[in-house]
Design goal:
Keywords: Membrane, Transmembrane, Transmembrane helix. This is Tetratricopeptide repeat protein. The protein has 33 helices and two strands. The chain is mostly helical. Helix 1 runs parallel beside helix 8 (about 230-255).
Length: about 725
């Protein structure tokens, strides 16, 4: 049992170190940003010859994919708050143990008091839901955690100087003093550089950021406390450590940067003050041991004249004065962070009014903080209030401009057809972020909208050079070559893109080779894939189906059409359905579908479909199929593939009758006549089938039509028609 108790300090140190490393990892990563890149693809129609082998090839549209970036607002994440709440519960438990030990209050009294207090609170708020309870308890938790973080900064401010004192100890006094003063001077200079960068006095990268120093000091402070025998001090430090990190984790993850800046400001204030006061503390208490070069780092927590806690109180007073000497900047920042955190909680509760009020209250204390502005921009975007969204985005980038903010603003202007405003915004962004491929991509799109094709081509190439491995830049360069015939793509590069698996690249590449009448590279992949309701997928399916015709993969287009989202997003799916039927052995069904589209579409599109319809009909008529049919299965298959072949019909119809499929035979002859009203060759077949079915009036109408089209052919079959009519009349008598 004693061995397990002895292991507790080591376990606590490992746990606290891992927690510090976790926070440092989030800090280095940067947390979730308020804005996130989202790729947007557009379908751009491009006219092309569908049947280049034909002299009268109809023109139709294939689709190019043009891509750019859309900036999506990102909502906060709940799990860091939940993790913070668990750490806070553990920290409050340890804090209660410290208070009980320090005040010597019995546990029975503490538990009884908590039960009474909790009972009253629960009785007065029994109607609250689980999330409302979380919101209700969240406010005091954040306040306690922020106070704990402030005190932890003070308590740990002596941790790094203490370690410096320990590692500076050498066999001789002179060497010890030189090392100590050198390390302390280096540490102080780093703190000053960090302070100057944080407050905007200068820009330098030759410093360790304040937050990293804070986490190191927290971990070292925990290590030093756990080495002591005073259990109450261990509990107090552990409680403050847990409570501080309970709020640091949601601050870091949800990018509540104003709270981190407040803690960094307070942290280096306390560390600078302690760095200046620590040598005075050592000399006042340990003058004689220092002169004798003794290892005073082992006893500094037991100062004789001036206890360390008095120095810490002095640090607190100095730093509070320093804060308010700067117009209370750190104070306003931490209050703004508190309201931002409240706004995040209200977001999950679902109370949009309180959420908005919280973020606006945060802006009262820190108008330019990113968290509040981006959160309000997100709410304005959801509400469709474009003007407010633009205002908050502009405000958010005054102090810390970011490329996503510029792109988001430019997109707003573009959506409102204010392309010059969009251009000016992106040009300013390009000056600040010249290495951003996203901004170059957006500039190309805006210049294209303004009909400045040369400038658009320049930025397409620039985006490709900045992101040479990005499929978006490849697809846009191919799009530009096809759309504007610019030939800005290098042949060897374009050939290497043939193996790309990106559907936008494959679709635009196919369009480029099709337009230039070049053969596709042998390595161009032509395989089936799981098609999603996505612009890039549709463009590839559409273009490849039109290009490869009967050699393309057969997709379940009829199933897609049943989903109204497909028809709404891609109306051309109906034409693709007819196209696939025609080139996958269902030509008659394709003709019927395309004929319906001709009746539904506007005149321009209807004329385009009429030309395709005529081409298909002519193609079916020109087919000279030499097939010997031996059974009904072959007959049905032949009629399906060659519905306008007289020879096929002459062989197939008798086989259908032998199998008692009289109606199918009649429908086959009827379809041939309906689609070819001016061709006399199909009428004899239809007239015989009409009489066979008892459709005497239809047969007589067809005979009249045949007399006008080809009297000689009519005379050839007149006797057969008379006999067929006589049989039909006799059948009707019974």
């Amino acid at each position: 049992m004693k061995q397990r108790i002895d292991q507790i300090p080591a376990i606590w140190f490992i746990f606290s170190s891992l927690l510090s490393l976790f926070c440092l990892g989030i800090y280095v990563w940067g947390g979730i940003e308020g804005l996130a890149w989202k790729e947007v693809s557009e379908l751009i129609p491009q006219s092309i010859s569908l049947f280049p082998e034909s002299n009268t090839s109809p023109q139709s549209s294939i689709f190019l994919v043009r891509q750019h970036y859309y900036v999506q607002s990102v909502a906060p994440v709940f799990w860091p708050m939940l993790l913070g709440a668990l750490l806070a519960i553990l920290g409050l438990t340890l804090l209660g143990q410290f208070v009980q030990s320090w005040a010597k209050v019995s546990w029975r009294q503490i538990v009884l008091g908590l039960l009474v207090w909790c009972g009253i609170i629960f009785w007065r708020n029994v109607q609250l839901s689980a999330m409302e309870w979380f919101s209700f308890l969240h406010s005091p938790w954040v306040i306690i955690a922020c106070i704990s973080a402030g005190w932890l900064c003070i308590l740990s401010s002596s941790a790094i100087p203490s370690i410096i004192l320990e590692i500076s100890h050498s066999p001789d006094k002179t060497s010890s003093q030189k090392k100590f003063m050198g390390f302390m001077l280096f540490y102080l200079i780093n703190l000053i550089l960090s302070m100057g960068n944080l407050w905007g006095f200068w820009t330098s990268t030759l410093y360790v950021p304040a937050f990293i120093i804070l986490e190191i000091s927290f971990a070292i402070g925990m290590f030093r406390r756990l080495r002591l025998d005073e259990k109450p001090q261990q509990r107090l430090y552990a409680a403050l450590f847990l409570l501080s990190h309970s709020i640091l984790i949601p601050f870091l993850w949800n990018n509540n940067e104003v709270g981190i800046r407040a803690l960094e400001s307070w942290g280096f204030m306390t560390h600078i003050a302690m760095t200046l006061l620590f040598p005075v503390f050592l000399w006042s208490n340990f003058k004689e041991p220092i002169q004798q070069n003794l290892a005073i780092y082992k006893v500094i927590h037991k100062a004789h004249f001036i206890p360390i806690y008095l120095i810490q109180i002095g640090v607190f007073i100095v730093c509070v004065s320093w804060v308010f000497a700067r117009q209370g900047t750190a104070w306003h920042q931490i209050v703004a962070a508190y309201y931002n955190e409240q706004g995040d909680v209200e977001h999950f509760v679902g109370d949009r009014m309180l959420e908005q009020m919280s973020y606006k209250n945060a802006m009262i204390h820190s108008k330019l903080n990113q968290k509040s502005n981006l959160s309000l921009a997100r709410m304005s975007q959801a509400a469709g209030d474009i003007e407010k969204q633009a205002y908050y985005l502009q405000t958010s980038q005054i102090k810390n401009p970011k490329e996503k903010n510029f792109v988001a603003l430019a997109n707003i202007y573009g959506n409102e057809n204010q392309w010059f405003e969009s251009l000016f915004t992106l040009k300013k962004a390009h000056q600040l972020f010249p290495e951003s491929p996203q901004i170059s991509t957006q500039l190309s799109r805006v210049y294209e909208q303004l009909k400045q094709i040369d400038s658009a081509a320049y930025y397409v190439v620039m985006a490709k050079e900045l992101a040479s491995t990005s499929p978006i830049t490849w697809a846009n360069l191919l799009y530009f070559d096809v759309r504007h015939g610019s030939q800005i793509g290098k042949k060897d590069e374009i050939a290497s893109w043939s193996t790309s698996s990106d559907h936008a690249v494959k679709s635009n590449l196919l369009a480029l080779f099709w337009q230039n009448k070049h053969e596709l590279p042998t390595q161009y992949p032509q395989e089936a894939f799981d098609v999603q309701l996505d612009v890039r997928d549709f463009a590839l399916v559409y273009n490849s189906s039109l290009y490869f015709k009967g050699q393309s993969t057969s997709y379940p287009i009829q199933e897609w059409i049943k989903d109204p989202n497909w028809l709404q997003k891609f109306p051309e799916i109906a034409f693709l359905d007819a196209w696939q039927d025609y080139y996958h052995q269902q030509p008659l069904r394709a003709l019927n579908k395309l004929d319906l589209l001709v009746q539904k579409e506007n005149e321009t599109k209807a004329q385009e479909y009429r030309l395709i319809l005529q081409h298909w009909k002519q193609e079916l008529l020109e087919v000279k199929a030499k097939v010997r049919l031996e059974n009904v299965s072959q007959a049905r298959s032949a009629i399906q593939s060659y519905p306008f072949s007289v020879g096929i019909l002459q062989q197939a119809l008798p086989l259908l009758h032998q199998a008692n499929r009289h109606q199918e035979a009649y429908q086959a002859s009827l379809a041939a006549v309906q689609w070819n009203e001016d061709l006399a060759a199909f009428y004899p077949l239809y007239i015989q089938e009409a009489y066979q079915q008892g459709e005497i009036s239809y047969a007589e109408e067809a005979m009249t039509r045949l007399k006008k089209l080809d009297p000689a052919l009519y005379q050839t079959h007149a006797t057969a028609f008379s006999m067929a009519k006589e049989k039909a009349v006799n059948r009707q008598k019974f």
